[in-house]
Design brief:
globular; Urease accessory protein UreF; mainly alpha; cytoplasm; UreF_sf; nickel insertion
Length: 231
């Protein structure tokens, strides 16, 4: 019997939807589309999720993990901290920026339990000193690199963790059934794989490139009359 790669269990643990990062409190703009009737069922949610992963998450979180790996391979921690600050500057919706900071810190804190001997401790020092803002993709890159996960595997795990979290939120909010949620997640396999392939072609100039419609929906969320989620 061939043993699983040593990085598999740490990645699975940090990708678990039950990880106490607070991600379950955020819809990242999905709730704005629920409010205006764009998302009403399984099919419309799946269409939004495809756009979110392929047109926003790939260009933010996915690209950040890849560029973080490249800096870490060079031993350039300052480059990782710069990436964190750049992500904050490029995230225009205030709620999403705040969500990234909160989830990023919690991911780093939990990550030090999963990989105590990693640069996550240094990241927390930078956060406490106010020199970094916090971002889940940066924290995930630091942990995944520490356990020697291949960069494409790290990106794939992080993107699919977001898919899982958002699908669980959609099951509650639309609502759709648990089986429908599983169909959506299965349909996202190729979307995530294509997003990873896209990430590997990007340059730093592509970081944060997001269709305005997604960002506008994320900005609209804070002014909704009723909300289930924080973003």
């Amino acid at each position: 019997m061939t043993a699983a790669p040593s990085y598999l269990l740490p990645l699975l643990q940090l990708s678990d939807s039950a990880l106490p990062t607070g991600a379950f409190s955020h819809s990242f703009g999905m709730e704005a589309y629920l409010a205006d009737g764009t998302i009403v069922d399984e099919a419309s949610f799946a269409a939004w999720l495809r756009a979110y992963v392929s047109r926003q998450l790939a260009y933010a979180d996915g690209a950040a993990i890849r560029f973080g790996y490249e800096a870490l391979h060079l031993g350039d921690l300052d480059g990782v901290w710069r990436l964190d600050r750049l992500l904050a500057a490029l995230t225009l919706p205030e709620q999403v920026r705040a969500a990234a900071a909160t989830i990023g810190r919690r991911t780093a804190e939990v990550g030090t339990v999963v990989a105590p001997e990693s640069f996550l401790v240094d990241y927390l020092v930078e956060l406490d000193a106010g020199r970094c803002h916090g971002h889940p993709a940066v924290a995930f890159a630091l942990l995944a690199h520490a356990v020697d996960a291949p960069v494409t595997t790290a990106i794939e795990a992080h993107l699919f963790a977001a898919v899982t979290s958002l699908t669980q939120n959609a099951v509650r909010a639309i609502p759709i059934g648990q089986t429908a949620g599983q169909r959506v997640q299965r349909g996202m396999h190729d979307v995530v794989a294509d997003a990873v392939a896209t990430v590997m072609t990007l340059t730093e100039d592509d970081l944060g490139a997001t269709p305005p419609g997604l960002e506008i929906a994320q900005m609209r969320h804070r002014r909704q009359r009723a909300r289930m989620f924080m973003s």
